[in-house]
Amino acid sequence: MRSYFNDLPRTVLGASYWLFSIYLVLPLALMMAMSFKEANFIAFPIGNWTLDWYGKVLHDKQFLEASLYSIGIALATTICATIIGVWIALLVSAENIWGKAAIFALACLPAVVPGLINAISMRIFIRTVDIPTGTFAIILSHTVHAVPFVVIMVMTRLRSMPANLVDAARDLGADPFVAFLRVTIPYLMPALLGGMIFCVLTSIDDFVRTFFLGGYQPTLPMLIFAKVQGGMSPEINAMATIVLVVTTVVGLYAEYLTRRSRS
Question: Cellular component GO terms, alphabetically (predicted)?
Answer without folding.
Answer: plasma membrane
